[in-house]
Design a protein that fits this description.
Rossmann fold; 8 strands; alpha/beta
Amino acid sequence: MARIITFASSKGGTGKTLVVANLGVAMAQLGQKVMLLDTDITMANLAIILGLGRQKTTLHEVLAGEARISKAIYNGPHGVMVVPSGISLNGIQRVRLDRLKKVVDELARKSEFLLIDAPSGLGRDAIVALTMAQETFLVVTPDIASLSNALRTKIVAERFGVKPAGVIVTRATGGHVDIPGDEIASTLDLPVLATIPEDQEVRRSVAFGEPVVTFRSGSPAAREFKRLAAALVKASPAS
């Protein structure tokens, strides 16, 4: 059974989907059987970041009861498996979130790590995605608004019995306006698992539809993604 981790952010713009994509590919490069699930029903873009293009069958069709989950699994870079959400407005209207638990259970049997990209915010769809996991990683930028919202997300996760396991800080500049990592850890009472620096190569990789860990594997952001991937794999009971 997979280790299931939801990546959550109650504020848009933190780069949460970038984290899921790059971390998943980096773990697959280490020989892990990794499944990525995009549960952002209304604003899906995980497939775009991975360069997968448009798919006929997505999580929309599965949650609408129109397709089996096996039809919505696609091969991504380095063997990472991906279940994308669709972009059709009609597809959104047919989705039933109560079917998500069965989907997660099936995907967990097919992988060693199941990384769930949850919608931003604290709406019903985000909370449902949050409760699908054994643990959650909070993705934040080093500013007061993001930190305040992350604290709310942590409280909601704990209320639903999901363990907040750590924080991933993104878009860190190292400048004096960034909230320091130790202050973020203290405020959220969680360890900072990784600090992804602001890196021009990340933006370039998105433009080319390729994760930065393969696009520019030696860039500062890619190195930090790979460091965290190695730490997670090492900490896995199966390793």
